[in-house]
Description:
This protein is α+β, with helices and mostly antiparallel strands. The protein is globular. Strands 7, 8, 9, 11, 12 and 13 form a six-stranded antiparallel sheet that branches. The chain has a four-stranded parallel sheet with strand order 5-4-3-6, covered by helices on one side. A four-stranded antiparallel sheet has the order 10-14-15-16. A hairpin with a 4-residue loop joins strand 11 and strand 12 (302-310). It has helices at 20-26, 34-41, 44-55, 75-82, 96-106, 154-161, 187-213, 221-233, 263-267; strands at 9-11, 17-19, 65-69, 87-92, 113-117, 135-138, 175-183, 237-239, 251-257, 268-276, 282-297, 302-310, 323-334, 339-348, 356-365, 375-381. It folds into two domains: 9-140, 3-Layer(aba) Sandwich (Rossmann fold); 178-185 and 237-381, Distorted Sandwich (Hnrnp arginine n-methyltransferase1), CATH 2.70.160.11. It has nine helices and 16 strands. GO terms for molecular function: histone methyltransferase activity; protein-arginine N-methyltransferase activity. This is Protein arginine N-methyltransferase domain-containing protein.
Amino acid sequence: MGSSANGDRTASSNGVSVDRGVDFANYFCTYGFLYHQKEMLCDRVRMDAYFNAIFENKEHFHGKTVLDVGTGSGILAIWSAKAGAKKVYAVEATKMSDHARELVKANNLQDVVEVIEGSMEDVTLPEKGYLTSNLVTLVLGVFLGRFIMIEITFHNIMCVMAFPKSSGFVRYPSHARMWVAPIRSGLGDQKTSDYESSIHDWECFLNETKTYYGVDMSVLTKPFCEEQRKYYLQTSLWNNLHPHQVIGIPAIIKEIDCLTVSVSEILNVRADVSSSITVEKTFLCGFAGWFDVHFRGSRENPARNEIELTTAPSVDNGTHWGQQVFLLHPPLRVSEGDVMAVSFSMNRSKENHRLLEVDLGCEARQSSGKHLRPFNQRFYLE
């Protein structure tokens, strides 16, 4: 068994032909470096949530068989073993599996934790019947990327979602929610300045090319401007926001039951929500998106102590996930009591299955009843 970097092509659920070698290079390889694992392991919010979820609900692990999808360094698999699991299969697509195997051995848990290198659709677990009620949990959610969806892997999620759910089956985390909220930020001015600087550089380039080389390249100005606008003004940004930057009531755009959700539900998110501005006389500079997850167990096998992990804007350092920021150009002046009617749609790009396309629209109405300038913008997330 090995990582799926052999150039095979697989059709994803949105009809895109995926080169798995390229997929590995663009996605999985990052997780093969210890610096990246360290970044996640230093995220105390993340680590505390998983630690508490496991050790405050040991009955979900004691004497059970656990499958850890995307084990990385193997720490969650080790915790599962320490919580009493009789067997833990820790699946990892990258060479980080070698480090995980060494870490397991150093903690004298090699008789319980078995590290398997490969992606979920390729590996064969040694234990027959591992999908019976004896399988208790998928410790690491396979779609916990920034704003949940960004790091999703088609191969893994389709494989995991296809697991039969018996009465004893529990998935950790068990539930998730996606949020959006209006924000104020200086990032919009910065990105607009970067865009204008890029266009100015292009104009200088045109003049120099025509003067020194006798070629008029102005016919390419329109596609260049479109390219730069997409890069500077339509690409969603990652940022750790302060709570004071949130200027309206957050709204849930998606609730996910990880045990019953279908692939199509995850890959196509649509919502119409509203949010009231809570700050007097400010600028609506855009919207922020984040997620939280819950470790509740299942209806038949509920957690004794429910744990929440949130990536909302924090007064502390936040999490390594941060928030996704969708900037409005130009910003819109709003005031307390104004109501934002927000339409949100997120789908996979047909050209690049790791690229998300977000259509975000907003109609603002003042408390007096006056309608403010509406906007509808497409954003790109990768």
